[in-house]
Design goal:
- The structure is a single chain.
- By secondary structure, the protein is α+β, with helices and mostly antiparallel strands.
- The protein is 18% helix and 49% strand.
- The chain has four helices and 15 strands.
- It has a six-stranded antiparallel β-barrel with strand order 1-2-3-8-7-6.
- The chain is elongated, with a radius of gyration of 21 Å.
- It starts with a helix and ends with a helix.
Length: 245
């Protein structure tokens, strides 16, 4: 079953199993405060595979041999969960590798959350009212007209996912207000500008700068094809960042 579902290069998320102790960094911040991101290096048989050692802030995390961890495979066929034990760890072809063995069969599951990529990028947006939102819903061509003919506000993306963005800007946005995001997406050297509607979930000033606000925005009325493009873009950017590390 494993070899029919999981393929080389598939993205994975690793978390501590519930009965395991949490490992701490020097600053006492657990590396498992969020899932560790890695990818499949090789599928050996129906229970064993090799994965790249996860990297956190430029540091390779060598998971303990005999340690047990939960794993989520993000495949073309969906999301699959299991648990594994680390059999060995070593360096192969310049890459730090973990040899792992699954302790139970893959189980497919659904989740609403999307992986968030932390990175900084300038972008533009505009707050829209209900009448403008209605016009856009009735005619998608209005998006380009609004983006081309209005003075857009500037912001800096903090992180992005298939479900929304978190960004910083100089104005406080009203919760539940609607915005039109202008996102430049470069995928496989092809650049395209997307206008995506979103709803403001929160807007709060930064602790170290009360003149700048952190905005959390959820996409609304987004075509599946656009969402999939954003997810592919995130995966590609994360892969490039991993190569640099």
């Amino acid at each position: 079953m494993l070899s029919k579902i999981v393929t080389l290069g598939d993205r994975i998320e690793i978390t501590k199993s519930e009965n395991s102790e949490r490992r701490k960094l020097n600053d006492e911040k657990s590396v498992f405060d969020r899932p560790l991101i890695s990818q499949v290096y090789d599928v050996i048989d129906e229970t064993q595979l090799k994965i790249a050692m996860p990297i956190v802030e430029g540091r390779v995390i060598p998971l303990a041999v005999n340690g047990r961890f939960d794993i989520c495979f993000i495949t073309s066929g969906g999301l699959y969960k299991s648990r594994f034990v680390v059999l060995d760890r070593y360096k192969e072809n310049g890459l730090y590798v973990l040899l792992i063995e699954l302790v139970y069969e893959l189980k497919k599951y659904q989740r609403r959350q999307y992986y968030r990529l932390e990175y900084t990028k300038d972008f533009e947006y505009i707050v829209i009212d209900e009448d403008t939102e209605k016009l856009i819903t009735e005619d998608e061509n209005m998006i380009k007209e609004i983006l081309d003919n209005n003075q857009l506000k500037k912001g800096i993306i903090i992180d992005i996912s298939g479900g929304g963005v978190r960004f910083a800007s100089r104005e406080k946005l009203e919760e539940k207000s609607k915005v039109l995001l202008k996102l430049d997406i470069s995928l496989s050297n092809n650049k395209k500008v997307y206008g995506i509607m979103g709803k403001v979930l929160s807007s709060r000033s930064l602790l170290n700068d009360e003149t700048t606000y952190e905005q959390r925005v959820e996409y609304t009325e987004i075509p599946n094809s656009t969402r999939e493009t954003i997810i592919r873009y995130i995966f590609e950017q994360e892969r490039l960042m991993r190569q640099k590390n």
